Amino acid sequence: MTSPAKITLASLATAALLLPLSAMSAPYNDDGYLTDMNHEIVTSAPTGLCYRTSEWSPAKAAEECDPEYFKKAAAPAPAPAPEKMAPQKINFSADALFDFDKAVLKPQGKAMLDDLARTLNGVNYDVIMATGYTDRIGTNAYNMKLSQRRANAVKQYLTSKGIAPNKVYAEGKGESNPVTKPGECKKGMGWKALVKCLAPDRRVEVQVTGNKQQ
Q1: What is the dihedral of CA 59, 62, 65, 67, to 10 degrees?
Q2: Selection from 188, 120, 199, 200 nearest residue 154 by Cα
Q3: Res 55: pLDDT
């Protein structure tokens, strides 16, 4: 029969087996890990590893013991900044858009502006400027009004296609900034020939400034 003294010694020997274990400072009152009487997780002194119990599950994981269960998802990479595009200028022949001396869009002119509107779907535009010009036939005052009406017609058509009106500007500049060179088209060459010669001056320029969509 074992004596009480031997039982005590045996108990001490068993307790000595736990001497390599050291308590962590943070209390953890769950049954997923081996804890001491103060409900603190005990770890192996040489390795610092925690001891899981049979009750352990990922839901009971402690960050100091199983940090891999607490890894935060990496923040998504920031979206690239939109590519700033250089201002794009498109020249439309006024004769293609309108009949001579008129400001009502022709079917051909509408088709051309439809293509432009589709192109603008791929641009986050800041400003769209429609600038109308005429040739030098007629008075300067008349040409100024005609160029403005034509620029307005282009703006109204583009906005009818869903482009925000507050981003489209229309301006008429009359017979200023001609494309033809001085003396290139002379009045003595005949009416039809003169009108044809001055055709490059009759135009509507559409300039788009904005960002290309990614």
Answers
A1: 80
A2: 120
A3: 83
- Whether the CA torsion 31, 32, 36, 38 is positive or negative: it is negative
**Are the C-beta atoms of 153 and 204 separated by less than 8 Å?**
no
Query: Higher-confidence residue: 85 or 175?
Result: 175
Q: Per-residue pLDDT averaged across 129-148, rounded?
A: 95
Q: Which two tokens stand for residue 67?
A: 């940090």
100: amino acid identity, one letter: F
Task: Answer with the residue of higher pLDDT: 20 or 103.
Answer: 103
From CA 118, how far away is CA 187, in angstroms rounded?
A: 40
- Spell out the alpha helix ranges (H) of the chain: 4-16, 94-97, 107-120, 140-160, 191-197
* pTM, two decimal places: 0.58
What is the pLDDT, as a whole number, of residue 30?
A: 57
Q: What angle do CA 69, 71, 75 make, to 5 degrees?
A: 150
3-class secondary structure, 110: helix
